[in-house]
Design goal:
Largest sheet: 3 strands, mixed
Number of domains: 1
Shape: elongated
Number of strands: 5
Number of helices: 5
Organism: Terrihabitans rhizophilus
Mean pLDDT: 91
CATH superfamily: CBS-domain
Structural class: alpha+beta
CATH topology: CBS-domain
Protein name: CBS domain-containing protein
Order of helices and strands: HEHEEHHEEH
Low-confidence stretches: none
Helix content: 40-55%
CATH architecture: Roll
Oligomer: single chain
CATH class: Alpha Beta
Pfam family, one: CBS
InterPro entries: CBS_dom, CBS_dom_sf, CBSX3_CBS_dom, Diverse_CBS-Domain
Distance between the termini: 28 Å
Radius of gyration: 18 Å
Keywords: CBS domain
Amino acid sequence: MYVSTILDTKGRDVVTVEADCTLLQAAEFLARRKIGTLVITDYENVPIGILSERDIVRAVAESGPSGLDQPVSAYMSSPVQTTNPGQLIRAIMEQMTEGRFRHIPVLENGRMVGIVSIGDVVKHRLAEFEAETSAMRDYIASA
């Protein structure tokens, strides 16, 4: 299965903010959209960082409430690892595990076309396993 399969199921919407957005504004975006991660982009919509809820918690722990006035660029993870729609899901699972990150933007021809989370990957891998198990049961029952 490919990354494009996940995007076809979950959609291709990516919530982005620019690097000068404050952590408070980012937290508001996260809460309003009920998501855990934002992609930080430059003025040409190219991913330059990832900001998660954990990054915001770290900022508050280090600087107190005034940390929320800092730009997201101060706490985002960078550089951003990316993938493409034709990448095998198994390959991005390995990439996420080795890099110890949970979200990966998907680029096609230099344009961001989606984002995949480790939860998306696990959900689709479980669906694959269930389909294989069902096919094996059907095969055994028909033998």
